[in-house]
Amino acid sequence: MIISIINGSPRSKGATGTILTEMNNYLGNKEDVTINYIDLSKLDMKFCTGCIHCYKTGTCMIKDDDIERVAVMVKASDGIIIGSPTYGSNISGMLKNFIDRGHFILEQGLRNKKGFALSTYGIADGHQVVKILKKFFLVSGASRAGDMLLKIDFNNNPLLIEHMVKKIHKKMDVLYAVIKSQKSKSLFERLFNDFLLVKIIWKPIFLKNRAKYAGILKAWEQMEIL
Ligand SMILES: Cc1cc2nc3c(=O)[nH]c(=O)nc-3n(C[C@H](O)[C@H](O)[C@H](O)COP(=O)(O)O)c2cc1C
To answer: What confidence score (pLDDT) does residue 155 get?
Structure first.
């Protein structure tokens, strides 16, 4: 099983990175798990220009940075853990840009994968980040397989909080079991994504504008969504 862990914090060794590293170490000890640990701060990443080249071709127009390669790797995973600090009651700008650049959503890039959301925050609104990440998983076709929310003072080490390591391991055991079981999406996820979003809202629009959405239609064909 392949699990991609994405650190959306610009500080690779901050609170978010520390928890994600513990998840990486714990899951990485399981015999059948291969991990892609992706620190967005270490990637060469240009901004999404909104050209919609990806709608037409299924690939990003920007070829001279790391993002297309990493996005392909993430889409090939069985499970995805995304962690972000709370910035202005939202996910980090870096993570938002990665989500836009990876063209995951319309292409259903995380279809039937298991998604886990982690948010750290200092004062308020960490839950908004979890909500945003879970919504991202939902519209990208993934199933939501857990989350973790941590309030922590800036520059403190989360692993020193009592029972924190145990809590992280427990959550990773659940995620591992869900991926292993190949459990299908919940009824709500199927109704919202497979039926409402894909079939009722998007499909008629894409079929009416085949040239504009050729890249998405090709991805859907390969996934037997069409
Ligand atoms: C630019 C910026 C904006 C922030 N906005 C919020 C916020 O809206 N709410 C909050 O509770 N904490 C906010 N924080 C605090 C971080 O979310 C918190 O310290 C987080 O754990 C940092 O994660 P890191 O150590 O992985 O970088 C902000 C921090 C920065 C640097």
So the answer is: 96
Residue of the nearest CA to atom 24 in ligand 1?
Answer: 14
Q: Which segments in the chain show pLDDT lower than 50? A: none
CATH number at residue 51: 3.40.50.360
pLDDT in tens, 146-171: 999 999 999 999 999 999 999 999 99
Does ligand 1 come within 6 angstroms of the Cβ of 8? no
pLDDT digits (tens, 9 = 90+) for 86-112: 999 999 999 999 999 999 999 999 999
186-211 burial, b if ≥16 CB within 10 A, otherwise e?
eeebeeebbeebbeeebbeebeeeee
In a domain, 33, yes or no: yes
Domain that holds residue 23: 2-183
Does residue 113 lie within any of the structural domains? yes
Which residue's alpha carbon is nearest to atom 23 within ligand 1? 85
Q: Which residues contact 93 (CB under 8 A, 6 or more apart)?
A: 87
pLDDT number for residue 67: 98
55 located within any domain: yes
Q: Which residues pair with 85 in a beta bridge?
A: 120
Q: Has residue 190 been placed in a domain?
A: no
